[in-house]
Predict the structure.
Amino acid sequence: MRTGRLHALIRRVRRIERREVREFRRWIEDTDNLIHVSVLFFVPLLIGVVTLFSNALPQISFLLFPPLAAGTYQLFANPEGKYSSPIRFVGGLTLGAFSGWLAFEIARRFLYGIPEGAFQVHAGAAAVAVLLTGAITWAIDLEEPAAFSTALLVLLAETDTVTTIVGIDLSGKITFLVNIALSSTIVALGFVVWRHQFYEQRAEFLYETTQQDDHVLVPVRGEAAETVAHFGAQLASAHDAGKVVLMATVNDIGDQGPSTPTSISVGDEQLDEPARAVVDRLEQLAAAIETRDGVPCEVVVANAGPNESRITLRAVHETGCDLIVTPYEASMGRLSPFIRGLFASEFDVIAVRATSGRTRWRRILVPVRRSGDVAHAMLDFAQRLAGKSGQVAVCHCIDTERDRRRAEGMLANLSETFERAFETRVARERIEDFLTANAAHYDLTVIGSSTERSAASRFISPPTFHRLQDIDCDIAIVHRG
């Protein structure tokens, strides 16, 4: 009894641990969150490395650390920004120090009253240092905010101190200039490794749909089943290991249980005439998919039961699929019990409302509410469907103009994780009005299911797809398991 309780407790702890890991993964998939975590980890690490380097060489002045730390933060906080160039970072800081040294020499030779006390700087020298820094960095396009700090701090370096580096005697101010160049180079190298090996590859490390969602199960239901099956096949064909499983429920498959899917042939003697007709339809559709979409296709059937969504989820487990593509179903203005059951599962689900009859989608619109795993999954599915020759537009609606720059940055962060180019649009209007005016120009609109939102949030602001009944466009509703 005690052992059983212990095992139950261990299983519960593991479930909690897995849930927390999943929640953290979803949180870190937001590019802004990833950048903040990188700042908290890599900036202290690099400054620590430079400090360790400075402790080994006592002649390095601690004055170089304030601009170095500020510049390092700026590199990691905006890795795609204007000031996140390693060459600009090293060159700007070094030119700032050079400008400060040059200003000091000008002041010493041509001005009077150079202060002799510690931490005293001639006002004229400070002004000339800032002037030279701005002029030189602007002239050669190496403007760097932290360069103005090095220009002023070099004025505090001890003039009479002499340091020997590689056999050359250098004054304190020249030593400061050399040290800022070396230290900033160390930081820049660390930033380059982080940006190229991790940040620019974050889709491969963080976003699960990049490597998964290639084994697609399609419940063959309703009038749009064939269109939805081709939709799923195009998603699967984007990956080399992709496959499609067509599933239907029939009555009385011999001794099979009510929820056990099984592969079956058209001529199976266990089937009555209606059930054999269903399987015949699946086999013909599978052949069409293999011919047209070039992806392997299997057929499974299961005994019908009172809970169709549970039977479908059992089929997903049995066939090793990781994505469900199903026709959209509604009941009394809400999602049908079947769709709600699928959305409550741990699997990724796409509910397709196909009204146009097309089986190719080349112009796709993806409205996103915020960055994260759902938005990335929507873009991933859209670019798979569009193929190399199609076009994908990602959009976000704002309430006020002051939100525009933030929205543009969010869309840029989402788009740059993919190799293909996306059109990005920021509109100042309600999302319903925007889609009503623009969706007709596209073959498909991909939107989120909002299942990650709380019940209270969904009550106050219903999911967008509930308000899009009259849109003249196919709609794909994406749920992340």
User: Anything to note?
Assistant: Residues 2-28 form the longest helix (27 residues). The CA atoms of residues 100 and 152 lie 6 Å apart.
